[in-house]
Amino acid sequence: MKIQKALELGCCTLHSETALLDSELLLQKASGLSRETIYAYPERKLSLFSQIRFLYYLHAASHHKPIAYLTGHKEFFGMDFQVNRHVLIPRPDTELLVEEALKILKNNSYLVEIGTGSGCISCAIAKSKQDLQILACDISRRALALAKKNIQRLTLQNTIRLQKADLIVPKIEKADLIIANLPYIRSKDYLALPLTIRKYEPRLALEAGADGLKYYKKLLAQLPNYQGVILIEISDLQQAQELETLFPGFHYEYLKDLSGSIRALKITKKT
Ligand SMILES: C[S@@+](CC[C@H](N)C(=O)[O-])C[C@H]1O[C@@H](n2cnc3c(N)ncnc32)[C@H](O)[C@@H]1O
């Protein structure tokens, strides 16, 4: 099979809006060829080994396996992150948290990230701002093992420390900023998620009880006197309003994503 034919087959099999890009990523992974080679030599014949691998990837992708888990990589904030089935695939919406954090953090600031997963948020922040101290935590040992790899690949081991923790870490009050993209999907919404998410991405990284606030309620309840800034990603306005009602001692700034939907909250203690 030639490169051009393989891409055409990929587009017909995958049917999605991103079918061409996804086919190209799978072909790169299957053949080891670069993007440039794929487009420069459409008539080049693929080796039998590359063809078999490509067909296997196409079959898995057409049965809902996320492209990022097949390639083992996902781009976030312009950087390449390794991913596997123990971590959530980084989402473009989450870049909002990084952008907001970069506005808040000063040189030598101390940042604590709760629920780091692949480490994408902490790494993106550390790469964009010098002289930070970051403690990135997760409850999942397997997620932390992958975050460690990403930190090493980006040579950030002098900036980011990892710790296994269930939400809170000792002396968290000393942080200038606490950032968290914890699970926030309501249980009933979780069941309606596309198969590609529900079947493959870790439930531990997504679902958070009937109101989707199980983790954020626990987190805020443990920080009644915290004087720094808390940045969290949420699902929608309703979750924002529920947190405001439950924790009236804080001031809440709503942050919107590119589509204009409320996607994050900047929370500070009322003075
Ligand atoms: C929505 S994912 C976010 C991952 C990553 N920060 C990102 O933005 O792509 C939530 C993460 O929180 C972690 N998590 C779930 N429960 C936790 C808990 N009780 N304490 C700490 N981390 C938790 C999960 O293992 C998962 O890695």
What does this structure look like?
The chain has 271 residues and is of the alpha/beta class. Helix 8 links the parallel strand 4 (133-138) and strand 5. Helix 1 packs across helix 2 (19-31) and helix 6 packs across helix 7. 40% of the residues lie in helices and 18% in strands. The protein is built from 12 helices and 9 strands. The protein has helices at residues 3-14, 19-31, 35-40, 48-62, 67-71, 95-104, 120-128, 141-153, 187-190, 195-198, 214-221, 237-246; strands at residues 73-76, 79-82, 110-114, 133-138, 160-164, 177-180, 229-233, 250-256, 262-269. It has 2 domains: 3-63; 74-269, Rossmann fold. The strands form 2 sheets. A 7-stranded mixed beta sheet has the order 5-4-3-6-7-9-8, sandwiched between helices. It has a two-stranded antiparallel ribbon with strand order 1-2. The mean pLDDT is 96. The structure holds S-adenosylmethionine.
User: What is the β-strand count?
Assistant: 9
CATH topology of the largest domain: Rossmann fold
Spatial order of the strands forming the largest sheet: 5-4-3-6-7-9-8
H/E topology pattern: HHHHHEEHEHEHEEHHHEHEE
CATH architecture of the largest domain: 3-Layer(aba) Sandwich
Ligand inventory = S-adenosylmethionine
Question: In a few lines, what is going on in this structure?
Answer:
With 271 residues, the chain is α/β, with parallel strands linked by helices. Helix content is 40%, strand content 18%.
